[in-house]
Amino acid sequence: MNVRIISRDKNNLKFMLEDTGVAFANALRRIILAEVPTMTIDEVIIIENTSPLLDEILAHRLGLIPLKTDLENYTLPEECSCQGAGCTQCQLTFTLEREAEEEGVIVYSGELKYQDPLVVPVSDKIPIVRLARGQRIVLEAYASLGRGKDHAKYQPVSTCAYKYKPIVQLEGDKCEACGDCVEICPKGVLDLKNKSIMIKDVLNCSLCKACEEQCEFDAIHVDSDDSSFIFNIESSGAPPPEEIVERAIEIFSKKVKELKSLLASKKS
Q1: Domain around 16
Q2: C-alpha to C-alpha distance for 99 and 137, rounded to whole angstroms
Q3: Torsion over CA: 136, 140, 145, 147 (sign)
Q4: Residue 13 and residue 42 in one domain
Q5: 233-267 pLDDT, tens per residue?
Q6: Residue 95's closest CA among 115, 76, 75?
Q7: Which domain CATH number covers 82?
Q8: Cα distances (angstroms) measured from residue 112 to each of 60, 64, 141, 193, 214
Q9: Is-contact 109 115, C-beta < 8 A?
Q10: pTM for the whole structure
């Protein structure tokens, strides 16, 4: 199996897996969504709340704020020596205290006070609640590691998808360079230059086959390579996308070893 990075930035990673099967690609996708842990607010103690939001809604909004996650220094509650009771190895505390001195004050995620500077909201500008004059909220929130299979708020990505590697073939002897396929392509895969159709960005093809259906001369054919997959991962901002993939591969490898050990014990 070969891996090739196509593009990447702070929160996005696009790469290609070659010489593998759909079973592996789908297993990797499911592990990214369900098994890679992230830190999220899981428990909220409301001390005072005179805002328009009910306590439950306020707690729900806090739980959906993505937090930068330090996977090296924290462990899952069920794997911690405290056995889920809550300690500095598996839990940390946030506090929030705000009273509106004027009308229409918006409380943002940046106003949360935190214990660990490495575990903070990915953005300071996530709105939590709008307060009218004199309204007040005081609360304590506890964050811990969790996985997407337990609750969707723990998923480390907002997008994790793959597609087969597209194959676009042009038959020059049939093509009349009318440009209809260029106009109908929703992804800008084709281009018309010097009275000739060119393939500009084949990896951007969505395999919709609109160009193939539009061509009256049967000059363009769209197919896919079922042994190569293009992954598109968008991190929520918790771990960076590279770390998400690395962790997913580690978890995958661990599961394979456990299965291998189980099969060996059954044989013996």
Answers
A1: 2-34+158-232
A2: 7
A3: negative
A4: no
A5: 999 998 999 999 999 999 999 999 999 999 888 77
A6: 115
A7: 2.170.120.12
A8: 15, 14, 9, 55, 55
A9: no
A10: 0.88
Q: Is 139 in the same domain as 171? A: no
Query: Can you say whether the dihedral through the CA atoms of 36, 39, 40, 45 is positive or negative?
Result: positive
Return the pLDDT at 268.
67
The answer to whether the CB of 46 falls within 8 A of the CB of 139 is: yes
CB of 248 closer than 8 Å to CB of 256: no
Q: Tokens standing for 140?
A: 């304590």
Angle formed by the axes of helices 22-34 and 241-267, to 10°?
A: 110
172 and 149 in one domain? no
Q: Contact at 8 Å (CB) between 45 and 135?
A: no
Point out which residues pair with 131 in neighbouring strands: 105
Give me the pLDDT at residue 228, please: 96
pLDDT at 98 over 90: yes
- What residues form DSSP beta bridges with 8? 13
How far is residue 154's CA from residue 168's CA, in Å, rounded to a whole number?
A: 38
Does residue 94 sit in the same domain as residue 182?
Answer: no
- H or E, element range at 233: strand 220-235
Q: Which residue(s) pair with 170 in the sheet?
A: 220
Beta strands in the chain, from DSSP E residues, in sequence order: 2-8, 12-18, 38-49, 91-99, 105-108, 113-114, 127-131, 136-146, 157-170, 190-193, 196-199, 220-235
Residue 85 pLDDT greater than 80, yes or no: no
Under DSSP, the state recorded for 102 is S
Q: What is the pLDDT of residue 251?
A: 96
Helices (H) and strands (E) in the chain, counts: 5, 12
Exposed/middle/buried for residue 219 (C-beta within 10 Å: 0-12, 13-18, 19+)? buried
Same domain, residue pair 144 and 162: no
Give CA–CA dist 218/180, Å, rounded.
12
Report yes or no on 171 lying in a domain. yes
